[in-house]
Amino acid sequence: MSEYKLVILGGGGVGKSALVIRLVTDNFMDEYDPTIEDSYRKQVTIDDEPAILDILDTAGQEEYSSMQDQWMREGKGYLLVYSIADRSSFEEITVFKEKILRAKDVDKVPMILVGNKCDLDDADREVQVNEGEELAEQLGCPFMETSAKEKINNEECFNQAVREIVKMDKEAEAAAAPKAKPAFKCLIL
């Protein structure tokens, strides 16, 4: 059974822990208790394949930024989460992506952009759906809006992160595979 190390990153209060706890225990955490670092394991089935998710739930507060490099190096796939009701959390996303690439010293990583709290009223919304879609296109990753509270795309965002890992692994294997040499034909006249 494959195991996938996922790291969930985003600003403070965007609902990272709520997404993870909803996935792992099916409970909704409605009070905000800032996370420093929590790790969860869950066995799931993704596209008919059993898998173990090893999820690292990280702190969004600036005072823990020194720990971020370590978290980023350990991950295989990333969920970059912002709150649709907090524009500054949305604007931080590109900074998280750059930090991941720098920490891992790569050009690309498997990731998904997650706009959380989509259950909120439109009056609370500070980031529109099309803005999330445009940012995901710039980042080169899938995008979805979620709600831990209402269980909207909750499992799906983690499943999609795993699909991105699998896709990137297959691309790397294909690139590393020896190229077949073209067959030459001789013409005898």
TrEMBL record:
It is a lipid-anchor. GO terms for molecular function: GTP binding; GTPase activity. InterPro entries: P-loop_NTPase (IPR027417), Small_GTP-bd (IPR005225), Small_GTPase (IPR001806), Small_GTPase_Ras-type (IPR020849). One of its GO terms (biological process) is signal transduction. GO terms for cellular component: plasma membrane. Signal peptide: none annotated. It is found in: Cell membrane. PROSITE patterns: RAB, RAS, RHO. Keywords: Cell membrane, GTP-binding, Lipoprotein, Membrane, Methylation, Nucleotide-binding, Prenylation. It comes from the Eukaryota. Belongs to the small GTPase superfamily. Ras family. This is Uncharacterized protein. It comes from Triparma strigata.
